[in-house]
Amino acid sequence: MNSLKAVTQMRVDVEKKNPALESLFTDPEQTIFLDANFFIPPDRSRMGTKPIPFLKFCEIWLDPIFDAFPNLAIHESVYHELVADAVKKYADERQSESPSHLRVYKDAELNEAEQALMQAYISKLAEYSQYIPERDNAKDRGEVRSLSFMAVKRFLYFAANDTLPMNLIRKADELHTGLDDMELLEMYDVIYYLYCTGKYPPDGLRLLYKYEYYLTKQEKKMNLAWGEFIEKMNALYGKNQDQKA
Predict the structure, then answer these.
(1) What count of Cα atoms within 13 Å lies in the side-chain half-sphere of residue 133?
(2) In b/e form, how buried is each residue of 77-104, taking b as 16+ CB within 10 angstroms?
(3) What is the pLDDT of residue 195?
């Protein structure tokens, strides 16, 4: 097994356009699959800071993304990872809204040929993860099974804040994962999209950006401060340079 382990410090790329983000600026109604870490408030308390309370996380993140993107989805394996009462309740409420704002896709929806193809994808992706299909263990299950289902059904966009899906998608050719047509949306991509709409308080988006990408000394060397991040992304995507950060 050649596990692609996650790291606690994530790099913000402001040099190269993300085709997924460009596409969403054109059509935000496309289906986006979410990883569990998009639902669960980040907790970097071991870095000497307090975790973001769930209600605050809803206000600055979850409510805005469900408002901005009408076709959010998760695979059932990710749904089962939402074990905290408040998080699961939130997902259930979004799923049960009319019209539903969260589609939960299940393996039972696949026909026999699609089931076989999904198993082939699972075996291929599991090689680079800590997921062992024979045991159906929890570690990396959500990412591996989500991406496999998406590959079978030809969904394009996976939103995650983890290096495993990042590598499986962006190194698809090198690793022969079969995910060559898929694109990854990172949290900072979505933060920037929400900022560009002008509909959501920038203070909350700035707080989340700093918490996730500009907290440690190493991150402050590696990533840009909020204002510079916005300036660089504006230049990269041709957005309004006069909008205040």
Answers:
(1) 15
(2) bbbbbbeeeebeebbeebeeeeeebbeb
(3) 97
Residue 26 token pair: 């054109």
Within 103-201, residue ranges assigned H as helices are 112-126, 141-153, 163-170, 172-175, 187-197
- CA dist 63 and 133 (Å) reads 34
Largest CA distance in the chain: 54
CA 230 – CA 155 distance, rounded (Å): 29
Q: Which tokens sit at 52?
A: 């973001």
Looking at every residue in the chain, the average pLDDT score rounds to 93
Order across the sheet with 72-75: list the strands.
102-105, 72-75, 32-34, 157-159, 183-185
CB proximity list for 155: less than 8 A, separation 6 or greater: 31, 33, 73, 149, 182
The whole-angstrom separation of Cα 92 and Cα 232 is 37
Q: Does a cis peptide bond (omega within 30 degrees of 0) precede residue 28?
A: no
What is the pLDDT, as a whole number, of residue 49?
A: 87
